Amino acid sequence: MKKILITPRSFGKTDKSVFDLIKNAGYEPVMNPYGKILTKEQMIENISDAVGVIVGVDPLDKDVIDAAPYLKAIAKYGVGTDNIDTEYAKEKGIPVSITRGANTNSVADYAFALMLAVARKVTLINDMCHEKNWTKVIGADVYGKTLGILGLGAIGKGVAKRASGFDMKVYAYDIFWDDEYAENNNIEYATPQKIFETCDFISLHLPLTDETRNIINANSLSVMKPNCIIINTARGGLIDEAALVAALKNGTILGAGLDVFNHEPPEDDEIYKLDNLIMGSHCAASSIGASEEMSRMSATNLIEDLKRVS
Q: How far apart are CA 211 and CA 247, in angstroms?
């Protein structure tokens, strides 16, 4: 039976029927054997005899693709394809699909949860209470504050919608600006610089490109308000982590909530010492509903592509 490699750890976790979908199509699903994001070497080792792959954030570059002589189709478990050499896949005639819209609400929920948790120091208070320390901790307000959204795609729009319930003033930036949507939802266009200079909260929802890499850096951090809180549920490469760590340590900004990092887990020990940073393990999309929808959509996409190219 032809093999399909599946790397996302949450694939089919709460709905096993998706494995039957793959088997009934004539393929053998083979799950990630490591219980973590695969390294490039592990990808090369495990993809060598696969005709298809359902991939999360594991590396799928030219070398990995070249190590898979039978590979006919790639299905992204999610929407971001910066870990996939899509141009090389296209050259090889290998289609790449994404699960557009499957995790929008899950990620938007998590981004807003991080905003609340960082502002109100939820994890710090929780840790203190578990040590029977009932000292009062003063947090920052969220209601009525100003939110800047960098990237007003589906997830960015979801965060803006949640912010409306908190009566927040929303500024947003996106290359493909939707005037009608913005006007109907009380969202004002702003340049990244204006967002850096004026917003109490900044939430990142951009793809990682040469233009967006390290959009949060020492210069942008230096003009932010001292009460600013940064949220990133998009891609780790959007932030210069060394600059952010320095800003969090010296009080340039108030705090941050990060679900994504340049390396996961992060390699900088200083990150783990910050009490004004809430960290996530790239799990913003890991809700029951989102993982079930992404599992089914990625499997269906892959099977359809394999039928088409066979």
A: 22
Q: Are 193 and 222 in contact (CB under 8 A)?
A: no
Q: Is 235 a catalytic residue?
A: yes
Residue type, 286: S
Using alpha carbons, select from 214, 217, 235, 231 the residue that is nearest to residue 79: 235
Is 292 assigned a catalytic role? no
What are the strands, taking DSSP E only, across 83-193?
96-97, 146-150, 169-173, 187-189
Average pLDDT, the chain: 96
- What Å distances lie between residue 207 and 153, 175, 215, 221, 268, CA to CA? 10, 11, 11, 20, 24
Taking alpha carbons only, the member of 221, 156, 160 closest to residue 195 is: 221
CA distances 130 to 123, 125, 135, 274, Å, are 11, 9, 12, 19
pLDDT digits (tens, 9 = 90+) for 147-194: 999 999 999 999 999 999 999 999 999 999 999 999 999 999 999 999
Q: In 177-214, which positions are buried (b, 16+ CB within 10 angstroms) versus exposed (e)? A: ebeeebeebebeebebeebbebbbbbbbbbbbeeebeb
The one catalytic residue in 162, 235, 241, 292 is: 235
Which of 9, 100, 120, 282 is an active site residue?
282
How many angstroms separate the CA atoms of 270 and 245, rounded? Answer: 7
> Do 128 and 283 touch, CB atoms closer than 8 A?
no
What pLDDT, on a 0 to 100 scale, did the predictor assign at position 15? 94
> CB-hemisphere CA count at 13 Å for 111?
31
Enter the tokens of residue 3.
């093999």
- Residue 39 in this model has a pLDDT that exceeds 90: yes
Selecting among 28, 197, 213, 264, the annotated active-site residue is 264
Q: Which backbone phi and psi does 118 adopt, to 5 degrees?
A: -70, -45
The CB density around residue 101, as the number of other CB atoms within 10 Å, is 13
